[in-house]
Fold these 2 entries.
Entry 1:
Amino acid sequence: MQTPIRYQRKPHIVPPCKADYLCIYEDEHMVVVNKPAGLLSQPGKHKFNQDSLLTRLKDSYATPYLVHRLDLDTSGVMVVALTKEAAAKLGRLFERREVEKHYIALVDGLVEQDHGVIELPLTVDWPKRPMQKVCFESGKPSKTEYKVLQRDIENNRSRVQLLPHTGRTHQLRLHMASIGHAIIGCDMYAGDRVCYAGERLFLHAERISVTHPSSQLTVSFEAPALF
């Protein structure tokens, strides 16, 4: 039986991440990696939060450019540009929402509908930042499509595929929590439900499809979830 702990804000200093990224693909224009959970995408403002995917990539590549990010606690596929030209082209694709991303998550409870779409206006919750909130007055549109892959009746959990059509901060966490199925291991939006000591956030960017900055062909990269 795991020890339950109540919701608490994460410490300002990020614990060291022993796991390293795995290279999935690389050429002269870009590199695609599988980022581990617990590793920042880019250095933080605090002097002790300088370890990150970008920092580690600089040990192997002269000029890596982040064109998108994953949350600290989220693992999975990330595309990183290796030239300014590639960074500009890839950055525009993400800005225009012309990149297809598939996530895998384990969520609390048994999701009733096999498939659904969540659309809510999201904005920063300033007193609790970096947390976000639903706000119909000032929130920006957000949309997530979900599909149930498996229902674990014994553990009261569901395995879902998530397809975000927008890229708001904490969108997937907040969207799933809004329908009563918080992502397991999320200590931000689980409400009165408990998360468990030692559990990671069960959210993984499994697949990404993007137009290659040089060939202009659609290329897809995948890293299966380890949970």
Entry 2:
Amino acid sequence: MGPLAGVKILDLSRVLAGPWATQCLADFGATVWKIEKPGSGDDTRQWGPPWLNDRCGRASGESAYYLSANRGKQSVAIDISQPRGQALIKVLAQRVDVLVENFKVGGLAKYGLDYASLQPLNQSLIYCSISAFGQDGPEAAGAGYDAMMQGKGGLMSLTGNPEDEPGGSPQKVGVAVCDLMTGMYAVAAILGALYERRGSGLGQHIDLALLDTQVAMLANQNMNFLLSGQSPKRMGTAHPNLVPYQAVRAQDGDFMLAVGNDRQFADFCRVAGQEAAASDVRYATNSARIAHRRELVEDIGRWCGAHPRAWWLEQLGRAHVPCGPINDLAAVFEEPQVKHRRMRLDLPHPLSGSVPQVRNPVLYSRTTLDYGAAPPLLGQQTAQVLAAQTGSSPEQLAELRALGVIG
């Protein structure tokens, strides 16, 4: 159904960065076997509330966090700490194109499931390792979550109100952006390796680190520092390279104003009834506006206070000046454009009847993405996958289940 139909993924990852990557690959049509620990599964299954309610309105034990990142996969519960569980993984690894894992560096070597151990069994295997700090370096053995990477990698130094303003302390972004971006880099890296393999016939090891990703994704702020030698500071909603580009206060609350060039600024001034400001030498160019940021922001505050938010959004929209409301999620899913683009979808679920999801933002002109499968219950496809891929009989599977090797 998708561009990756026929590609098989062995997913040994948990929490977010790895599962986010493999969910995207599943959306693209890949078969994803999600390997989970019998009895408990992915850590995020317990990261609630909120929980999905079953048909009787009771908490089902499926957390919202888990449900956000595991659509389209097949859950196979195998205890990889047991030799017979390791043997099952080795069989599956010979039947897949890609393996994704996010264990601590060296964590899978003791089970014989690291790249060096599996590559001789499947020379075309693309093995993607996601770790906190990467496979080498002085901190390679360390563990880490998204929040600490936002701090260590510089993002929190750029996020939040300025030091001299109320609440002027470092802030974590409201979603795990380092995990999510690492997941998307993993998708790109895997697709690149699959493309390269068409010529070479060989797989390879992909080494992705949360810290590397957090540093890389700072984009223009990295270059602001590298060119100037000055570490950028927290600016609240303001932009370091554009003015005005921040939340502004209207008569009845805030909205986001995002002026990207001098023409848009002149149009903003016209809507505000301040045409002369567009030719004021302090404000006529973006570089001048940056130099006179404080006085311009004060002027804009006075101008915007003359009308309510709805007036500004309508008038600036007509003038093609980028602006928008600052929505909570209830308002986001009521946005006409979000509804038109069908960002929300509902998938059949065995416990609740259906489960809400947010679709992959990719739309192909010819290829349809397949959202047929909700995030699986723990071990939902264990017997099905192992019978088909390892040739295990019902009796053998029953024995493995009784020994706790599978769930």
